[in-house]
Design a protein that fits this description.
Elements: E1 3-7, H1 12-22, H2 26-33, H3 40-47, H4 63-76, E2 79-83, H5 88-103, E3 107-111, H6 124-133, E4 135-141, H7 148-156, E5 160-164, E6 170-171, E7 191-192, E8 198-200, H8 216-229, H9 237-240, H10 244-253, H11 260-275, H12 279-287, H13 297-302, H14 304-314, H15 318-325, H16 329-361, E9 370-374, H17 382-393, E10 397-403, E11 406-412, H18 419-424, E12 432-435, E13 439-445, H19 449-463, H20 466-469, E14 471-475, E15 477-478, H21 486-493, E16 507-520, E17 524-531, E18 534-540, E19 556-567, E20 570-582
Length: 584
């Protein structure tokens, strides 16, 4: 695959000014500028985030109406049902909302749909669960923005609905009957929303564009934040703080940008997750073998998050919320061990599907959208496999499981291609779809798959260019080896938490000598890079195949992330390679 390297540079005089005025190194100043942090005040705000800087939850349309309805439910002694989702974002959002409501003195239960039985979203089963529980109010989290029929059914049964969601709303004029929410403002008129007492979704209003980065758990936290701001509810700011760990988990799990409120929530949550103040997460850390490891956002993404997701992928996720809310050590540990076992099973199923997909890819010459379907593929792992395929081939990937003539699947995209925009243009071929620009769920008749594949390929080719389809290595600052030292590392650490929208800085250095190259662990490239008398260790994960092409007498350019390697009690600086090429 062709990889294009891009270095964004800044005027040298301005770079020197920002470095001096903000008391940071020129390299760090360049990294910040390339993240859109261009003034001294921006630098200060980014490097010193605080919970007091969280946005006002009442900026979100529908929040005032939601709080008034919750207050009425408390006053009337009504039962409330929180309707969640089976992924980590939806499960943590459910736990946040149930916990806040119960702390405020409401009788709150929850319903988590089963992936295989109910499918995604707020449907009739959730309304029936509310009626059975005697609930007079349903609050959806991480779902509901397109659930018109379910909202109508609830209203017909005398049950009010508050929708909190972050998924793409239905555009006005789409086929089918659509209702407007009673609290709809003028700036929402391009969208159709379910008939609910309140609809909270930042994507409905251009005035809260800074909050569109929130995931379902983030919006649930904003609801709790609004509850804490209302003096008539028995819920204080002190009650809000213990919910940060759940908001952080959902935020990391949903791979939303770690900027603004998201960055503040995740950063301030780390001490709570580290200390194990929540019994369920403490038990889950123990079952995962994390021991005393320092908890960072990246570690969460491949340890706790997959385990929380495992139940929703291959089993019933209802008990995950029990784990997150548990006050009993024995119960929490028993549920954590159950999740650990499920995660192992999920990994085995995922690997089987992934290898099957790779075998198919070897027989095709993909140059546009990748679409595959099979009768035996497990629906619960299709999203993960689609993500791996999209990353490996740098093309949008659709993975489907076929049952009784219906294809249900997941799609993952590349940054240059908006999945939802593409799916809107295929609406006539689809039974249902929904999601984000980069991830979506899709359902259609299996017989329509060839036509759907052909149209998606045409849309992709029309809406992207050759450069869009290249794998871009975007370097945040050009450096020399002398720039890479412990002082720079201390500055880089101030950027944490790292994740989508706030990645670890990728640095680039030219004209380096490569010495001592060898393959370790069967497929990783280990070597030293030198520039004059200076040298640093470097490792390229999964780059071992390059070793036969390296020429000791040729200078190389390297793209890398500096990191500390800790081994046997020793700690030293090394470069984690992301790219290596002969110098021009």
């Amino acid at each position: 695959m062709h990889r294009r390297w891009l270095v964004n540079r800044t005027n040298a005089e301005y770079l020197a000014y920002l470095s001096r005025a903000a008391s940071i190194s020129p390299v760090f100043a360049q990294v910040l500028i390339n993240r859109g942090i261009r003034t001294v005040s921006d630098v200060h705000d980014f490097l010193h985030p605080s919970l007091t800087a969280l946005s006002d939850p009442f900026d979100l349309p529908g929040m005032k109406e939601a709080i008034e309805r919750i207050k009425a439910a408390r006053h009337l002694g009504e039962k409330v049902l929180v309707h969640g989702d089976y992924d980590a974002d939806g499960l943590t959002a459910t736990a946040i909302t149930v916990s806040a409501l119960r702390t405020a003195g409401l009788d709150a239960g929850f319903f988590i749909p089963h992936r295989m039985v109910h499918g995604y979203g707020f449907h009739a089963a959730g309304v029936e669960a509310a009626e059975k529980a005697g609930a007079r109010l349903i609050i959806t989290v991480d779902c509901g923005i397109g659930s018109f029929e379910a909202a109508d059914r609830a209203r017909d049964m005398g049950i009010d609905v508050i929708i909190t969601d972050h998924h793409e709303p239905v555009v006005k004029g789409a086929k089918g009957k659509r209702h407007r929410a009673e609290n709809t403002a003028e700036d929402q008129q391009d969208f159709m929303v379910p008939n609910a007492v309140a609809v909270i979704n930042p994507k409905l209003s251009p005035h809260v564009s800074h909050l569109t980065v929130l995931c379902g758990a983030g919006i649930a936290f904003k609801l709790a934040q609004a509850m804490a701001a209302d003096k008539d509810l028995n819920f204080s700011p002190d009650d809000l703080l213990p919910l940060l760990d759940l908001a952080a988990l959902g935020t990391v799990a949903d791979v939303v940008p770690l900027v603004g409120d998201n960055r503040i929530m995740v950063r301030d949550a780390m001490p709570y997750i580290q200390s194990g103040s929540r019994r369920g997460l403490r038990a889950l850390k123990q079952a995962a073998g994390l021991g005393g490891r320092k908890i960072k956002a990246g570690l969460l993404s491949y340890t706790l998050v997959p385990r929380i997701n495992a139940a929703g992928r291959i089993a019933d996720a209802h008990d995950v919320v029990r784990l997150l809310l548990s006050a009993q050590e024995d119960e929490a540990y028993e549920l954590a061990v159950w999740l650990e076992r499920l995660n192992g099973e999920r990994q085995r199923i995922e690997e089987t599907v992934f290898q099957g997909a790779l075998e198919r890819m070897q027989q095709t010459d993909a140059d546009a959208v990748i679409m595959m379907a099979h009768e035996t593929w497990h629906q619960g792992v299709l999203g993960i496999v689609a993500s791996k395929i999209a990353e490996a081939f740098h093309l949008p990937a659709f993975m489907f499981s076929i049952e009784e003539g219906i294809a249900k699947g997941s799609a993952r995209s590349i940054p240059a291609f908006d999945l939802c925009r593409g799916l809107e243009q295929c609406r006539d071929l689809l039974l249902s779809f929904g999601g984000h620009k980069q991830a979506a769920g899709v359902k259609l008749r299996a017989g329509d798959l060839p036509a759907f594949e052909q149209r998606m390929k045409e849309i992709f080719r029309r809406e992207t260019s050759g450069e869009d389809r290249e794998h871009l290595i975007e370097i945040h600052a050009a450096v020399t080896l002398s720039d890479v030292n412990s002082a720079l590392m201390r500055e880089i650490e101030r950027l944490e938490p790292f994740g989508h929208g706030n990645p670890e800085p990728l640095l680039g250095a030219k004209n380096l000598n490569v010495v001592g190259a060898k393959v370790v662990g069967s497929r990783h490239l280990k070597l030293k890079v030198k520039n004059g008398p200076l040298s640093l260790d470097a490792i390229g994960f999964d780059m071992g195949g390059m070793i036969d092409d390296l020429v000791p007498t040729v200078p190389y350019d390297a793209a890398f992330t500096p990191a500390y390697n800790e081994w046997n009690g020793n700690r030293y600086l090394q470069l984690v390679l992301r790219g290596l090429r002969p110098s021009a």
